[in-house]
Structure formats: C-alpha cells, structure tokens
Amino acid sequence: MSGGEVAGILVAVFWAILVSFLAVALFRLARTLRAAGELVTRVTEEAVPLLAEAGATVRSAHTQLARVDAIAADVQEVTANASALSSTVSTAFGGPLVKVAAFGYGVRRALGRDRGAAADGGEVIVGGSVGGPAGAPAATARVPAARRGFSARRRKG
To answer: Which of 10, 57, 65, 90 could anchor a disulfide with 94, C-beta 3.0 to 4.6 Å?
Structure first.
C-alpha cells in the first residue's frame, strides 16, 4: 500500500464518521421539529377556546359596566332631587321656624331674668369663695344679675 492509498482510506473513514454525525444530528433535529409541531397543534387547540371564553367574558363585563353606568346616572339624579327638596324645605320652613325659636328664646330669657333677679337679690360674687377657709379674704367685686348671662341660669335648672 502506498501513501496515497492510506490517505484515501483515512479520508474515507473520516468522511464516513462525519456523515454518521450529520445523520444523527439531522435525525434529532427532525424529532425536535416534530415535537414542536405537535406542541403548536395542542396549544392552538387549547388557545382557541380560551380566546373565545375571554371574548365572552369581556362582552359580559362591558354589559355589566353599562348597567353600572345607568345606575350611577340614576343615583346622580336622585341626589340632585334630594338636594333640591332639601333646599325647598329649608326655604319654606326655615324662616318661620327660626322666628318661632327666636320668639321662644326671648320669652324664656325674659321670664328667666325676672325669676333669677328675685331669687338671689340680683348680685353674684366674683373673684373669691364664700364661706372659705378661716382667714381667706372676702370677695369684694359684685356683678349685677343682669350681666350674669345665660350660663348662670343654666346651672340653676
């Protein structure tokens, strides 16, 4: 055997090994592509119904939002009507009721002032205590009953 024949045999052996590796790689690539195709088919079969359900859900949500919008408009109208009614009632009854209350307050104040002045002599001691401890200075300032105000009558009754 000559050197050229040995080189030819070596090239043929390396060529056979290369073709074998390429055949194995192509076989694995074909198997991977087949699995990917099956995966895409299954995802498509499952995704289409999911998309249909999602569309139905979105349509239902849109319908519900339309109902809520109608309810909100009704509530706004009721609020406006209640405000108008409150304003009308305040205008119609507010003035007369304030006048009646003011009259009643004036009558109570007039009657209470006469009663309070007759009961205690018309004076209130300010600035000290009456009947305090021995040696305590007596209060010298006295305020007329007319200047006592409403709070003094409130404490009595």
So the answer is: 90
